[in-house]
Amino acid sequence: MAKAGLRMVYARLLRRYGPQHWWPGDTPFEVMVGAVLTQNTAWVNVERAIANLVEANALDPARMAAMSETRLGELLRPSGYFNVKARRLRSFCRWYLATGGYDRLSMLDTDDLRRQLLAVHGVGPETADDILLYAFTRPVFVIDAYTRRIFGRLGMITGDEDYETLRRCFETGLKRDVPLYNEYHALIVRHGKDVCRPRPLCGECCFARSACAYYRDASNP
DNA sequence: TACCAGGAGAAAA
DNA sequence: TTTTCTCATGGT
Known about the structure:
0% strand, mainly alpha, DNA-binding
């Protein structure tokens, strides 16, 4: 993928939306919990589930690991897939405690930490990379559905490449820079929510053609 | 009413 | 190995 194209899209997204100040979460552990809960789920519903955890004084790896899946599922209900996510979060918390928590995990190199995350039940490539970038501040580019849709419509990718292929595309096309990866992914999500929807909701973005007319038209901000 | 949302794992082909 | 199915609440 053309490096100039990647830089151009970033510059235009940043100019249009400004810094997004991601990830919403007060602690690295809360970021990790949010990364699991947001799987195929709107963030507003994740916030409700996290609020339930805080209210129950359960936003803690030891307490979540000790809680029954049924009880944890009740707290996670607003985020959807609550039975699935209760099991995944308990698996994650058991792993997190067994490995010694944040300080010990921070000592691992990025590749090793990524391999360990991917071995946890319920942590796939996107969730692992969310955690690496936003909780451990590692230079890993997160690929999500918005990334595929936006860059597919721009004609820069086909959109059906496998995850690792796309991650390499972005990481080799951009300098290894945590603040850049952080902001770029946040802007992609913002633009995806804003105008680059699955179906046309406004005239700003072309949904009928393979390329995105919005970014082809240099007069747009 | 139908679609969509910051995926992942299991089952089926 | 690749594709399809399942999980679920809440907003638009």
